[in-house]
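Why does residue order matter? Because the sequence determines the fold. Keep that principle in mind as you read this record.
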Amino acid sequence: MHQTTAMLIELGAIILVLGLLGRLAGRVGFSPIPLYLLAGLAFGQGGILPLQASEEFVAIGAEIGVILLLLLLGLEYSASELVTSLKTQYPSGAVDFVLNATPGAVMALLLGWGPVAAVALAGVTWISSSGVIAKVLGDLRRLGNRETPVVLGVLVLEDLSMAVYLPILTALLAGVSLAGGTVTLLIALGTVGAVLYLALRHGRLISRAVSSDSAEMLLLVVFGLTLVVAGIAQHLQVSAAVGAFLVGIALSGEVAEGAGALLTPLRDLFAAVFFVFFGLHTDPADIPPVLLPALALAAVTTLTKIATGYWAARRAGISAKGRWRAGGTLVARGEFSIVIAGLAVATEPRIGPLATAYVLILVILGPITARWTEPLAHHLTTRLHPAPLNPTPPTPEPLKPTRTGG
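Structure:
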């Protein structure tokens, strides 16, 4: 069979299967990410039917998927929102980092994978899935709840932290020296600061320059600009994903809304290809040896994320029920964890299977904890501190003597 013909058949089969899996996930009511990962495992190394002809195209599609994920994420936030979140939520972000990055780093060191792998696995366990959590909040009709801004604030800080974390990780994985890593970090921080400044001061001018009445022209300009910036960022070892995120932040208003609507179907397509690509490069036989560490990490970081959300909501003056809901909502991991693991597999291949198992567990568990953490906490609290069955009635006041006539 001709190479092009084989590629078209394989690629068409992949996209068709992804569409069917996405429909199935929608009917069941949970994220399609675990099904996409399982599809990649089935058609990858050691799978049921390994793909060959379309592998190079899928690899390029996966890169575009990561770029579009970060671009659309940046389009959701304005520069002023990010600055406000930094000012008000940074203590919650610090608690989130300490509680959730530490278990991943400790696990990597216990497994003997070294400090670079520890930094990578710390990121895998640290970052919650904005996509899964946003869907869960919508499904549970909690977008108007008092605790929801707290949840979104933590997510915004995590997303913004990626602009610093990913360049550091990229430099470490490339074996850059301390001096080189410092330069990379300074470039990243300078770039983020410059973009935030331009977006705050001149966001309207940037958006006006990109704006177009034609949907086709707007799509081409925004997508082309994002790829160029992502490529330059990759060349500077700042990470293509961060470059795309910064482009999204720089655009605002009607341009951001219009570009988001046009690019969302492309993001969904290429993001699905990205998850499949990650699964393709994970041998299913490598998962059983890391299943116990993945389960242990999932158990520990479920509790630490719940604690993070509870603390952040308490700090914001939310009631106890809202604190538990905030904690349970933050549990899901997904796209960022896979992006980080995808960067690290070249240096430490065992991170791939562990991250796959870990994300599969928590992307399924996340919607469950979002729904049931608060009722379960209420039930346990009631069991531990039951109300008295026969409360002592208040002592009645003595009757005042009444005066009779006379």
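The chain has 15 helices and no strands.
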